Known about the structure:
Elements: E1 6-11, E2 16-21, E3 28-35, H1 41-45, E4 53-57, E5 61-62, E6 72-73, E7 76-77, E8 89-91, E9 94-95, H2 108-114, E10 119-121, H3 125-135, E11 138-144, H4 160-164, E12 170-172, E13 177-183, H5 188-195, E14 199-205, E15 217-220, H6 231-243, E16 247-250, H7 252-261, E17 265-281, E18 287-298, E19 307-313, E20 319-324, E21 329-332, H8 347-355
Parallel strand pairs: 3-4, 4-8, 5-9, 8-10, 13-14, 13-15, 15-16, 16-21
Antiparallel strand pairs: 1-2, 1-11, 2-10, 3-11, 6-7, 12-14, 17-18, 17-19, 19-20, 20-21
Helix pairs in contact: 6-7
Amino acid sequence: xxxxxxxxxxxxxxxxxxxxxxxxxxxxxxxxxxxxxxxxxxxxxxxxxxxxxxxxxxxxxxxxxxxxxxxxxxxxxxxxxxxxxxxxxxxxxxxxxxxxxxxxxxxxxxxxxxxxxxxxxxxxxxxxxxxxxxxxxxxxxxxxxxxxxxxxxxxxxxxxxxxxxxxxxxxxxxxxxxxxxxxxxxxxxxxxxxxxxxxxxxxxxxxxxxxxxxxxxxxxxxxxxxxxxxxxxxxxxxxxxxxxxxxxxxxxxxxxxxxxxxxxxxxxxxxxxxxxxxxxxxxxxxxxxxxxxxxxxxxxxxxxxxxxxxxxxxxxxxxxxxxxxxxxxxxxxxxxxxxxxxxxxxxxxxxxxxxx
Length: 356
């Protein structure tokens, strides 16, 4: 009989879920959100957009294929989306203590312990997800048996973009065309998708004035938290829009481009986090299945007259992308680079590179 410590998830409204610990045995707190993907926990855990969040996985089993090795390929992680775990904790219905996958070099539990990230299993994640859908994402904390209690922590009250962005200029790949990548919490697969299309990527911090360097196109990455916190990025985007060179944004990049255009954003009740979000290209019958991870959205009604929605979510009608009606500026709220998830919309990288 395996010995595990008891752990409890406590939500800010007082609701509790009792389970067992399988990761680092310490208490933690953050915003509790759920993801309905069936696979991809190594990518999700290392996605900077999950900074400060306790991730609930709705698929009933976790850990069955372990985690891949740490190694780099072309200056970025080969299998992960950043160099460390960004989630505050992970929650599952059941944890598989025995893993099997040809790429795995250790278990999920071992990885969590290495990075000091708690994990809890043995709770009813269906009931928890229903609670979050009815009441919205909320703050929570995991208290592991034998460890001290911790206060609730609201990640949206601080500038998470500044927390996860790079702190110096980096260069990835090579090519005749140069793309400035504004790092608001970039996933490594965005860099992979750009460099394998033959462009040089200059990765700059979130508040870097990139208008002072030569470039052929501008790319704004994904990132965590409230877009209102990244006002300096928005100011620099307005300068770039005046220059007129091609601009593309993903996720947080969609929200920041919208704010630079003059639109507003708002917090969704429980966000979109999954591999199966259907979106429709505005003005057409073309629909795509997309990978998503965001808690804020653009308010379509506030877009200026020279901008329009590019994609619309088929489930709730929210914005999934914008474009300028005459200039080479566009963005997507979902993740065309996927990782993990469907690659149905990776063609957006081709469209951007063709604009350069």
